[in-house]
Design a protein that fits this description.
Number of domains: 5
CATH architecture of the largest domain: 3-Layer(aba) Sandwich
Helix content: 55-70%
Number of helices: 29
Strand order of the largest sheet: 5-6-4-7-8-3-9
Number of strands: 11
CATH topology of the largest domain: Rossmann fold
Largest sheet: 7 strands, parallel
Length: 663
């Protein structure tokens, strides 16, 4: 005994089988009066009431459904794809399930399995059935909408290797089939087929199973070669590759490894071809419910007929306090959700005078005309535009989630115009400028870690710039003439997007331009509220755009660079009464201050080091004190000195890097 105190608390994480055997007994013998608290996602319940027997009643329950409601996980959907060769036995031997739910079977157990369950094992592993499953898996995996990673769960190691070989064969056949299809496809179809072929060619797949004694000889007896698979498992970090969403390793074949405690957020599809039950089944399907960008849901594809056990497991682990709704639904629920999203989208379009059915049936120039009219109607206000884009995004994501189900085809024609309209609306705003984001990230890294090089890829279409309006070279008279004959809201949206992008870039370089931003926001608010009609909004936008052009050229008239102008404005705004001579003196001070700081003060990582920051602050105070005219009172001097230091800190990163370098 270590202690008989009663104020000791033992906290156990993952309270699984190891907590109910000899080691657990030793712990309780050593601490006979301690309180034991356990955490587990899958307590042993049905037939093995050990968790509550050992640890007592539940203190708190957080189940699958609650985590979905909180957004901590995505919902799971079930798809029955049991091959016709499969014998569906509602009373599948429970002993077989218990044997298979073990974390891993050694060779002796696998042989015992074959002896004790020869009929069921033979049924699952018969070659013609595996051939059918492999072919279906290739069709399903390559036809999905969201192209997340996938796991194929096989009954044992030998079957995992067999499935790998068969899938590779059908994978090659599918590529050949697509290449033949490419030759007879239309221009509209060709791009999609090329992308599918390219993705299939680059996709990597592998077998991941535990190592066993005599495995080479054992697999050889079954006509299988495990050596190339074991070589990859030993020489490559397959776990790291599979967890990397950008790595082409997208499909893995397992029988026990990676089924529990293995998180891959980009994994969206599990192919189950192994009898499982209770906590093992729940832990396995949880591999597909992790949150990942654009991932609407996880999908459980059932080849082995585990649905009855899934329902039983969900009754134990899934519902709890979640109000009775199951966290894993049949895939038909996704179809119903897509139908509802389409109804809501059509309703909004009808309210705005847009007939999606007419667009769907139109062709050629007539279709283009109807699409452009739809865009004009759906940007009547910011609220309508955002509502439509939200609905269109929901429709597109659900449509992708339903794929490759054949039921998706009946929605293809309806989804197409909704997506095209949304793309056209988004194209009215210039491509996002990521420069500021990059600089904000750099600033955060400057304050957090050692400097490293990063590359952010900006996605854009270089061949399509029709939605851009270059304010610096705009002919305002011609634009006004175009407005008279164009779709007014559409042109307003383009101009508003271009003005907004230009304004944000200018404010980033000179914070004293915030008054321009306030005026712009007030103008947009008035338009959205209906206080300005499209004509008046266009007139005010043009006037505002002209004022921006004039502001952008002000530095030239002042004979100052953009950097010098920012400092000069900080020192002069709000306006201060002074003579022309004093004003020139302030201008010269701004120039000298910037030159002094850039020459020897703004060194590498100056913002990280207190001594370097202090040196910059002292230099600012001294130079301003020496050169600013008497119009600056002590209080005003302190305000300006602080403002200048804050600007230098925000805009200059050190070693020649600043917001102005990329401008």
């Amino acid at each position: 005994m270590l202690s008989d105190r009663r104020d000791i608390i033992v906290i156990t994480d993952e309270a699984h089988r190891s907590q109910y055997d000899t080691l657990a007994m030793n712990m309780r013998t050593a601490l006979p009066n301690a309180s034991f608290l356990a955490f587990t996602g899958t307590p042993l319940i049905i037939g093995e009431e050990k968790t509550r027997q050992v640890f007592g009643e539940y203190i708190s329950v957080y189940d699958f459904q609650q985590s979905v409601a909180d957004g901590a996980t995505v919902p799971l959907y079930y798809e029955n794809r049991i091959p016709e060769l499969q014998l569906v036995n509602e009373t599948l031997n429970e002993d077989m399930e218990r044997l298979l739910e073990a974390a891993e079977l050694d060779e002796a157990q696998e042989k015992k399995l074959e002896r004790e369950f020869a009929r069921e094992y033979h049924l699952i592993t018969r070659d013609d059935r595996l051939e059918s499953v492999a072919k279906d898996l290739v069709e399903h995996f390559t036809g999905r909408g969201f192209q997340g990673k996938g796991m194929m769960i096989c009954i044992d190691k030998a079957t995992a290797i067999k499935m790998y070989d068969k899938v590779k064969k059908h994978w090659t056949a599918k590529i050949t089939s697509l290449q033949a299809e490419l030759m007879r496809s239309t221009d509209a179809e060709r791009r999609d087929i090329k992308e599918r072929i390219a993705r299939m060619k680059e996709t990597d797949m592998a077998v991941v199973v535990s190592q066993g004694q005599n495995e080479i000889a054992d697999m050889s007896e079954k006509g299988l070669d495990i050596r190339p698979h074991r070589k990859r498992m030993v020489e490559e970090d397959l776990e790291k590759k599979f967890k990397d969403p950008d790595d082409p390793f997208r499909l893995v074949f397992v029988c026990a490894m990676w089924m529990t405690g293995f998180d891959v957020p980009s994994c969206s599809t599990l192919y189950l071809d192994k009898p499982m039950r209770n906590h093992t089944l729940m832990q396995t399907i949880a591999r597909a419910n992790r949150v990942f960008p654009d991932k609407v849901s996880g999908l459980i594809v059932d080849y082995a007929g585990v649905f009855r056990n899934l329902e039983r497991a969900l009754a134990i682990y899934g519902v709890g306090g979640g109000g009775g709704k199951k966290p894993v639904e049949d895939k038909s629920a996704l179809v119903a959700a897509l139908q509802q999203a389409l109804v809501e989208t059509k309703s909004l379009c009808t309210q705005q005078g847009v007939n999606l059915a007419s667009i769907q049936n139109a062709e050629g120039f007539s279709r283009v005309e109807l699409l452009d009219n739809a865009v004009e109607a759906l940007i009547a206000s910011e609220e309508v535009k955002r509502r439509y884009l939200d609905l269109a995004n929901t429709v597109q994501r659900l449509y992708k989630a339903v794929l490759p189900d054949l039921r998706a085809h009946e929605f293809a024609a309806e989804v197409s115009p909704i997506k095209v309209i949304a793309d056209k609306i988004r194209a009215l705003v210039p491509s996002a400028d990521i420069t500021q984001v990059m600089e904000q990230v750099e600033a955060l890294l400057d304050q957090s870690i050692a400097m490293e090089g990063y590359f952010i890829r900006e996605v854009s279409d270089p061949d399509n710039d029709e939605h851009l309006i270059d304010l610096s070279s705009i002919d305002f008279e011609k634009l006004a003439e175009k407005f008279k004959t164009s779709r007014k809201r559409t042109l307003n949206e383009k101009l508003k997007g271009s003005v907004g992008q230009k304004l944000m870039a200018m404010v980033r370089l000179n914070r004293t331009r915030m008054d321009y931003l306030e005026r712009f926001q007030q103008m947009i608010a008035a338009y959205n509220a209906g206080s300005l009609n499209p004509e008046e909004f266009f007139r005010q936008l043009l006037k505002f755009a002209q004022s921006l052009n004039e502001e952008e050229k002000r530095g030239v008239s002042e004979q100052l660079t953009e950097e010098e102008l920012a400092l000069f404005d900080l020192l002069m705004k709000p306006p201060i009464e002074m003579s022309d001579a004093d004003r020139e003196k302030v201008k010269a001070t701004a120039k000298e201050l910037l030159a002094t700081l850039k020459s020897n003060k703004l060194v590498l990582d100056w913002r990280k080091r207190q001594q370097a920051r202090a040196a910059v602050r002292v230099a600012i105070d001294k130079l301003l004190d020496d050169h600013l005219p008497r119009a600056y009172t002590p209080e005003l001097f302190r305000q300006k000195s602080t403002a200048v230091f804050q600007h230098i800190y925000d805009a200059y990163y050190g070693s020649g890097r600043s917001v102005y370098v990329a401008a």
